[in-house]
Design brief:
Largest sheet: 2 strands, antiparallel
Radius of gyration: 12 Å
Number of strands: 2
Number of helices: 4
Order of helices and strands: HHEEHH
Structural class: alpha+beta
Strand order of the largest sheet: 1-2
Helix content: 25-40%
Strand content: 5-15%
């Protein structure tokens, strides 16, 4: 398990989210591509430009948002996130 110091350090040094992260298609921590791993449980850990930022349930969610269960709301279905991303690109 990650220590509190490791989690704090990760939050301070995080880079800007990619377009796929902002679209909710990739975990903001481990970069799991939810299109290739559709059974992975994703949690909402924040928002960027009105869109949900997602992280894998558990360690990634805790590292991204401080809570193993995410922050707020239910992620949009993967199919909907994919359609929105394709429509924008």
């Amino acid at each position: 398990m990650y220590s509190s110091d490791a989690i704090s350090s990760r939050r301070r040094s995080h880079s800007e989210p990619t377009e796929e992260m902002v679209a909710g298609l990739v975990c903001v921590v481990c970069r799991t591509d939810y299109r290739r791993a559709p059974d992975t449980n994703a949690m909402v850990v924040g928002h960027d430009s009105g869109k949900q930022l997602l992280a894998c349930e558990g360690v990634c969610a805790r590292m991204a948002g401080g809570s193993v269960n995410g922050s707020d709301g239910t992620p949009l279905p993967l199919v909907e996130r994919m359609h929105r991303y394709e429509a924008e690109h």
